[in-house]
Prior knowledge:
Number of domains: 2
Distance between the termini: 41 Å
Amino acid sequence: MGAGGRDGGDRTTLWPSAVTTNGVQHNGHKYNCSTRETPSCNYLLSLSYLQANIHHWSGHRAHFFFLSYQITMYRETIRQSIAEIVEPLLQMQGFELVELQLQQRKGQWLVRVFADAEGGISLEDCQRLSRGIGQAFDAEDLMATSYVLEVSSPGLDRPLRTARDFQRQHQRMVTVFLNSPHMGQVQQIGRVAAVTASHLVLHLPPNTPLTIPLPQIDYGVVELEFK
């Protein structure tokens, strides 16, 4: 059991014991890194309550869109506040915030933090980061309701879309799917050789360089290599 929550209850931290569909990548697999759950409590603006009562309150189409906008803005405000805490905390320990997801599930927030580093991220790294982020949330009194915190690596099956995504995969084999033909092809497989702000350079087997404009790339995926 972890430390007590805001209302004096217990917080449970669950550690993984097997390969799952979420979490840290090791040799092409992903492990669920760290789950940290706080007890339920009341809060002023409940997203689920708003969603459940939209039709009761609306009466007019304009009201429906207004409430939908309010819900979206509320979620984005919380997400931005979380990012402002998580990102510098990760950077101080040599990690990078790859993605931050915020969802509401069964009356509580689900906060998913995807982190990575040049040399990769281990299960122990995720456990340590989860504890640190949870403590930061409590110190800032950020989450006004119960929440589940998951800290994971991006995983090898995460689509690569940005220059930074491809930079993290330097010297790895990737398959790139294009939104328009390049050199007569809409798909290329090669090893990431270089990445600039505007171009990706792949080395096609055996060692032929190919430069692709990043705006022409729909997404890429990492290929598993068995040695």
